[in-house]
Amino acid sequence: MKSSRIMWTLLVLLCASYAFAQTQAFAPPDQQLLPPSSEYSVSAPQTVTLPAQDNRTFLLEDEANYALAQQQGVTPPALIARPQEVNYNLNNSGSWEMLPDGSRIWRLRIVSPNATDTWLVYDQWRIVKPCELFLYNDDRSMIYGPYTSVDNWDGTNVTPIIRGEAVTLEYHVPVDQSDVGELSVLRVLHGYRHFHDVEARDRDALDAFGDAEACHVNINCFGYMQEEKRAVALVADPMGGVCSGTMLNNTLQNGDPLFLTADHCLNGNQNNWLFYFNYESPACSPNTNGSLNHVVSNATLLSNWLDSDFALLRLSRPRPNSPFIPAFMGWDRWTGTPSSTYGIHHPIGDVKKGCEDYNPPTTSGWNGNFPNTHWAVQWDNGVTQGGSSGSPLIANTGRVIGQLHGGLSSCSTPNAADRYGKLSVSWDGGGNQSTRLRDWLDPNNSGSQVSNYWQPFGPPNDSCGQPGFTNITTLPFSASGSTLFAANNFNTIACNYTNTAPEVIYTLNLPCDHTVTVSTCGSNFDTELFVFQGSCSQWFTQAGCNDDFCGTQSQVTFNAQGGVSYTIVLEGYASSWGNFVLNVTGTAAGAQGNAQCPGYEITEVPYFTYGATDCGGDDVNPTCQSNDAQDVHWYWVSPYNQVMRAKTCYINFDTILQVREGGACPGTWATGCSDDYLCGTSSLASTVVFDASVGQVYYITMDGYNGATGFSSLELEVWNDACATPYVVPSLPFNDFGDTRPARDDIATYFNPAAKDVLFQYTSPICQNMGVSMCFETGYDSYVEVRTGGPCPGTTVVAFNDDYCGLASQATWAAEANRTYYIVVSGFQDSAGPFSIQFYNIPGAIPAPAGDVCETALQIATLPFTDYGNTCCMADNYTPCVGPDSREVVYNYYSTTCQDVTVSLCGSSYDTGLGIYGGTCPNIAPLIVCSDDDDCGGGLSYQSTATFRAEPNTNYQILVHGFSSNCGNYVINASGVPCPPPVALAPDSLVIRVEPSTSSAQLFWSSALNANVYHIYRSTDQNDIVSPANLIADVATNSFDCSGCLNEPSFEVFFAVTAEYVPVAATAPNESGNNAALGLTKADAVMSVVRENPALLMNNEVEEQAYKNGK
After folding, report:
1. Is 196 found in the same domain as 55?
2. Whether 1042 and 960 share a structural domain
3. Which domain holds residue 709?
4. How far, in Å, CA of 249 to CA of 814, rounded?
5. Which end of the chain, N or C, is more open, meaning fewer C-beta atoms within 10 Å of its C-beta?
């Protein structure tokens, strides 16, 4: 019996990418922090070259040794690297160089000629804060680091495997840092099996690393294993082996990183094991290499037991230092037998695989010993292999019930049994804490029989704006939590240190000016604090930064302005994480800066901020309410001629908003005043729309109704900037002016999708030719686009123009009656500026729109299909089925497959009619379905729907029209479902006429309604008649002459007949028809028995009536 562990000597050198108490992720280029030498022009580093090695000799030696060991029944070690002893440190090797900023770097380039990969082992490793270490290959396609004091670890250290024959170490020492630490390379590993270069590995027949057998099934072929797979890891043992295992949840669900694997994987070196998570082929097929970026190194053995072959470890941390958070599997210590099981594993160090057993496991021992301690499974899909040891056996409930000990399954013997140590046995194990699971999986002694799957998520303040996000509005404020499962949203470089740690984020908005202190003193890890002025993710100015204020914790003091947003970022130094304590305190510093008129200046629009009136004065009385309260102020000098809007929206009190202009603050006259306005879910917000002129000063006052004070947002923006508030053109002709510079880019136009834009809307009352021109007094390279159909901004572009008159734009189009058009004013590329615009009618006849006749029919290319239109500008070219005198639009649909198609005009604005016709243009015939008033979800309506069967390779024409002479806006939706396939059904009876002299049989049966073929089956096994192997004929009639079919003197012969038919809406009143109407997919075949009895003289024809429907 095999053991599912494969031995690889020196695998620490192959897979030990991160042998530290924490981990270092290989980030993509847009995230990877670069070494300091990349910022300056520096000299070449010192290079040391080791003796060349012969890779092919190593591979041939391995192959010979492996064959010899297999003959002796031993699983041999698979060497993948050869060590070379060295002694390189900061003092005796490499070169030191001073950078222009005054800091220093030490670099050493190590070359092992012909190596496929190169990596290093250290006997001294002490990085002093704030020094940093980077490693990279010659083309810098792989960069690891920065390693910091957070990465210090007692004992021998190993850094990641670097592709190629050369690796450079770069150690950075900041200015005035006297203690540089210690770094000494003990051993250089020369790789001769390709670890990173999979294509090169595949070309080398001798290099079998990571090549599992072909019958394994990739994990992403299993839809239901996508959660569980996040808990399973590949285990790399630096003393020579690979295994598998899984994270387990405990009854406290507190993130304790407990990891279950096999006892036989242990060799005393587990404190330096590597745990690779998320190593999988991205797709089910083809099989491709996965990412080895998500790794945790080092673990502590908690308990293990030989009998059930379990080992439980605690990882050095619950997650890799990368954007991946492992899951924690649930478990079940119930002694009962599940109905089915599945497994997830890493065979021979390959990408993650899955396997399934559709039957219950059986109780077993191990190799004749330890009775009733194991589960035995026989896989129906997939197998295991060396390296799968320790992987979980998962019951159909989704809970772990054991871990793999070993077995005989393989691609050549897929049904041979594998054996898993029972979790229910391991629960009490050998009777003490170090030989059982219960002390660790149930630390609070709850007595629970099960634990459930748990996928940790980041804290509520993990990123800006997520549910539960905290905005601090009053002081003092205190919070506590952990950054463990938070994301690293920002690779910050502040306080003079690079940073890749997970962080939490808070925002601060105070009503009055304060001197604020933010502190993490009392946290249990090395923290950093950053405070920025600006709302979350829109930071403008750094207000404060601190690393070590109270030990290794942080504190920042700054002056916060009332009504101004600040963002607090709490994270760890370098890549550290832990439990934090956050305290925010402050003292009021007098009245806020905008308590008195004119207040804060708005210098750029769109403008968004938060304000509070609690500390304001009461020096302006609004014109729209006499009962006001304290107020705060802003002012804006307009550089534009443009309709603007000021509004409050995110509020906690009843606001009043006023805009005034002319003279000194608060302004000579009121431009606008608003009390109650619906914004989102609040009806107590306020908005003012006003025409802004160039050079005019506008004074904006936020007040409260009837003494109310509180906190609110203030926005100043272009009024017709978005679909919610387009400028509605009332009639033609119409002239206006505006400016796109203060606008946002809300609409992705056809020609310039990234330019700022403003929006106009016009509904044409008649069919007319019309135009829009920007040829007069437009001061930039403009662009205009006309859209229609559906909701704003429209689904169809009907006209657009860039340079019609110089750099200005003009567009014309045929407007349909009662159709709404959206006119987008934008710019070429990123151009923006002031403009004038004219909307006008163009005299003359309008051309026939597309779809007016079948020659210009609108095409329905694929289903589902949605379109919007208007029939009022169409001609009356046909005689549709509902309104013979109505105008119609023609759609054409060519069906390539059989489909049941539904066409709906629900949502149209007039009394519609709908006709479905066959034929091809110019012939619109025959009529298939006609519809007038149908149910659109609320009872009968004036809209129309129709359903018809579209045959394969057939053309259909759809006429959208109106009842009588009605016309208007319509919406058409077309969808389809495949026609039901032919269905197998048994005829009602089967008669067999036997001719003994020729050993023949004639079969007769009742016809099945709508049958198109009958299938004849013959078998000598009554329990296996209707199967593909027993099909002897397909016939179109209800009889069959089976010559020689009874030539089986020693056996009974059984026949069965089934019919295929196409389901229809109505059927005849017989049994077969009723079954068809019920949609039966396959009935039991009518079966008969012919007994060849030597004692029965069969001189005459013998008829035997078969049992009906198998009874």
Report:
1. yes
2. no
3. 600-718
4. 67
5. C
465 found inside a domain? no
- 993-1032 pLDDT tens trace: 777 777 888 888 877 777 778 889 888 888 888 888 889 9
Which pTM value belongs to this model? 0.52
Residue that finishes a domain, picked among 672, 691, 718: 718
Query: CATH number for the domain including 965?
Result: 2.60.120.380
List the Cα angle 555/560/561 in 5-degree steps.
175
Among all chains, which residue has been given the structure tokens 């859209």? 787
What confidence tier does 9 reach under pLDDT thresholds 50, 70, 90? Answer: very low
Domain annotation covers residue 1061: yes
Of 1059, 1043, 1051, the closest CA to residue 1090 belongs to: 1051
In this structure, the answer to whether residues 257 and 327 fall within a common structural domain is: yes
Give the pLDDT score at 1013. Answer: 85
Regarding whether 487 and 447 lie in a shared domain, the answer is no
> In angstroms, how far is the first alpha carbon of the chain from the final one?
49
Give the helix/strand (H/E) hosting 1001: strand 1000-1005
Q: Are residues 177 and 119 in the same domain?
A: yes
Specify the pLDDT at position 129. 86
Residue closest to 458 by CA, chosen among 623, 221, 255: 255
537-542 long-range contacts (CB < 8 A, ≥24 apart) are: 537/464, 537/465, 537/567, 539/567, 542/494
Q: Contact at 8 Å (CB) between 690 and 672? A: yes
SS3 content of the chain, % helix, strand, coil (to 5): 10, 40, 50
Segment 142-190, tens digit of pLDDT: 898 888 887 776 555 667 778 899 999 999 999 999 999 999 999 898 8
pLDDT for 628 beyond 80: yes
**H or E element in which residue 365 lies:** strand 362-366
The two structure tokens encoding residue 496: 């003079």
Length of the chain: 1111
pLDDT digit string, tens, across residues 236-263: 775 556 789 999 999 999 899 999 999 9
Inside any domain, residue 466 = no
Put the strands of the sheet holding 565-572 in their side by side order. 471-472, 503-509, 565-572, 527-533, 541-546
What total number of domains does the chain contain? 7
Considering the domain architecture, whether residues 300 and 252 belong to the same structural domain is answered as yes
d(CA 1053, CA 1092): 9
Whole-number pLDDT of residue 1100? 27
Three-state DSSP class for 755?
Answer: coil
Nearest of 575, 567, 573 to residue 546 by alpha carbon: 573
More confident residue, 197 or 754: 754
Q: Which among 560, 588, 616 is the end of a domain? A: 588
